[in-house]
């Protein structure tokens, strides 16, 4: 396989660290009790989201889930607005009304963040159908978990997307668990990507902890979808290195799984690749320091921001016609 | 007697029913002990006791969960299925509304569907628009289903047993904020019949008709109003549909004033049905219009202070009571 272009690799690294530093910051704030909201950690899945977003164009569409921080920040959502929303402030992407599970920012292509497992897939088809109809050349990427592949809507959406050759990338982030249920306890399928064949769809299974595997796979999938050949189901193998949401335990994970997870951590691996490709420690650290500074500023901004006015509960229900 | 929490009460009722009848089994996401006995621990310890076949941890497949409950019920078993949070019924409404509710009727009585669908929800937890709704009116609007919700642990125990006994589908709604409530344990075998309301507090000036978590608000406000010389009766429906009309009408005939109260959005809510029926049947004893209190007609917002503004407040209940009895 051809090497990833240096510039692209740096782009993937930067996006990965953006996701990771946001996650670390969020967990620190929750731990300190500075904020008290639902947050679904993405530790362990940063690279998958970053690689996927780096393979898209800025104006492509994304549909994600409650565990969507990675897609949102890696796609380039303005982070002041992102933090504003997570903290329930007027400055948020959705005026504090959507919250951590429902981040929406059409300007950066974050079209829907759903809290309902599996519900994003049929909607992604619709976004792609619009692109197919109007010829805007956009690809829609929908991210979901391994558990979501067992929702009826998955089957309906996969079949329809392939039938119409819709420009959709179905990205299953297989982190081996759905809440407390492990993969082998929710399906007897050996994997999710293998199901694509049943729909006549292209399926790709890839190591989501290895940038040299996951980025090229995402690029191939996006290219395939954009070229009009139809949708692709990508299954990126990864780990959910924290509990289901912040504060929930993971006592149900066997010791071997925890060890395997630590061994496969995508971040040290990525750093190793970067150094092999002649990026310097200083360069890489500088990127992280810049990201941290930007995040700190965004968090301060969000903490200081006003609460939405209470009459917001009556607004945006239907279009206001005057 | 010892106290139990609502979680324990539900657990005991299910445990007891499973011990007595091999046909009772549970299915739902994360319900087995391997996953911690349910996200709210209601089925804690039961898979260890009865095995994974009777506490089936399912894939995330709501249609398949409810459909399987319907099928097993037709074959004579008594499934208790769990939809983790009430909003997810959106995924499987077909199985509930077109099948569970109607199979008895459409088969001319041949295929009753004795199943319990447990679910939980509640505003005030910061879960936002897709995890907080009270959707009881959706089910109350369909013939062929019982809709039940307890406001205290003892009732939870008794209502759960009665729901498992029932020969028709029961939607059993638990409120996330009520799991920790404690009552005296009513003990094994306790049943609260479906369709029977409770007078949670007697009063003479006004009746508040409510259910679930808002019973607590109503009781608190009723206590305060007592000091101001207004005697409020609180009717806890316990079964939302079909509800105990006799108790509701008797209460309103006695007090002459009624307020309906629920957390669910007000327009087209269960309060509208109650108010209409009261006005039809208690017209001569009414001293004023029946008033309704409910949640704001929008999605449940995320920001904490918006969420608090969204729910009916105790202040609003006091205000409505005062307006009703003519005490501004
Ligand atoms: C339809 C539906 N059922 C159940 C849930 C509750 N729930 C939230 S996340 C989750 C697990 C999802 O697992 P997976 O799809 O693997 O995604 P992950 O959380 O691992 O990213 C469940 C069961 C839900 N949100 N929606
Ligand atoms: Mg998962």
Protein architecture, described:
Chain A is globular. Chain A contains eleven helices and eight strands. In chain A, strands 2-1-3-4-8-7 form a six-stranded parallel beta sheet, sandwiched between helices. Chain A has a two-stranded antiparallel sheet with strand order 5-6. The model of chain A has no long low-confidence stretch (mean pLDDT 97). In chain A, strand 3, helix 6 and strand 4 form a beta-alpha-beta unit. Chain A has one domain: Rossmann fold. By secondary structure, chain A is α/β, with parallel strands linked by helices. Chain A has helices at 6-32, 46-55, 69-75, 79-86, 120-134, 152-164, 183-186, 211-226, 255-263, 266-276, 281-304; strands at residues 61-65, 110-114, 140-145, 168-174, 177-178, 181-182, 202-207, 232-237. Helices cover 45% and strands 12% of the residues of chain A. By secondary structure, chain B is of the alpha/beta class. Chain B has two domains: 3-184, Thiamin diphosphate (ThDP)-binding fold, Pyr/PP domains (Rossmann fold), CATH 3.40.50.970; 198-326, Rossmann fold, CATH 3.40.50.920. Chain B has twelve helices and 14 strands. The radius of gyration of chain B is 20 Å and the shape is globular. The termini of chain B are far apart. The model of chain B has no long low-confidence stretch (mean pLDDT 97). The structure holds thiamine diphosphate (TPP) and magnesium ion.
